[in-house]
Design brief:
about 260 residues; Rossmann fold; 12 helices; globular
């Protein structure tokens, strides 16, 4: 059985795409078969984060009815599978949302978990994701502006009569001016699923074109994502120091991409 999660936020810049990639990678580390889908259809960048800006086939082709969504699945060396978007300007102008639900549902039985990286804001793109998935997870940073915008996402989910699991509080520094977790939870009236610390290893992983769990396996943020994934699937997690060689760009992160 395939479970579909939508990853959404009303405010850009809070780490939605980074969270999608690394949460998916954490699920893979627990033996789950995972697909990530770039559903930010006007500004897709999942593939940019993973080192390949353009692919021959994308979700835009599937939404146009030219191919099945399963025909634009690509394997990353970390074990992730990706449905990319097309970053071209012309594709952004001609997005067809009418086929989104049926296209996404065609991935049933092709993975244990499908994580859908939705567009930021209160937009038709975001609403299409809400309608097509089983559960919503929203992302915020611990500041008032981001948390306030998160309420808009929650309201949109409630109006669609879909289930929101909770909020991930990202880029936590532990500084005095940050909103306390209990205040965030009370203000949003949904559970705080977990926290992800601010960690420069995220930027390093982006430069290496892979999830931080794959490129820097013992970073503090790596363990945070694993704890979060374990909680979501009801599994115990104890941090263990891993020794893993970081592959160079030529050794696999770009070279290892393949269609599947």
């Amino acid at each position: 059985m395939t479970t579909f999660f939508g990853i959404l936020c009303a405010k850009g810049g809070v780490g939605k795409t980074t969270t999608t990639i690394n949460l998916a990678s954490a699920f893979v580390s627990f033996g789950r078969d995972v697909i990530i889908v770039d559903a930010d259809l006007t500004a897709p960048n999942l593939s940019i984060h993973l080192g390949v800006p353009t692919f021959p086939r994308s979700i835009h082709d599937a939404l146009a009815g030219e191919i099945q969504l399963s025909e634009c699945l690509y394997f990353h060396p970390s074990g992730l599978r990706l449905v990319p978007g097309n970053i071209g300007y012309e594709h952004a102008k001609t997005v067809n949302l009418q086929n989104f639900y049926s296209a996404l549902q065609s991935l049933k039985q092709k993975a244990d978990i499908v994580l859908v990286d939705g567009a930021p804001g209160i937009t038709p793109e975001a609403y299409a994701v809400i309608q097509a998935v089983d559960y919503i997870i929203t992302i915020t940073t611990p500041d008032l502006a981001a948390v306030s915008d998160t309420r808009r996402t929650i309201k949109m989910v409630h109006e669609a009569k879909k289930e929101i699991l909770g909020v991930i509080v990202n880029r936590v520094r532990g500084e005095e001016h940050e909103l306390p977790l209990e205040n965030i939870q009370a203000f949003l009236d949904i559970p705080v699923l977990g926290t992800i610390p601010e960690d420069s290893n995220i930027r390093a992983a982006t430069q290496l074109h892979g999830p931080v769990l794959y490129t820097i396996p013992d970073a503090p943020v790596t363990h945070a994502y694993k704890r979060l994934a374990a909680k979501l699937i009801g599994q115990e997690y104890t941090a263990i120091v891993e020794q893993k060689k970081i592959p160079s760009f030529k050794e696999g992160l770009l070279k290892g991409w393949r269609l599947g």
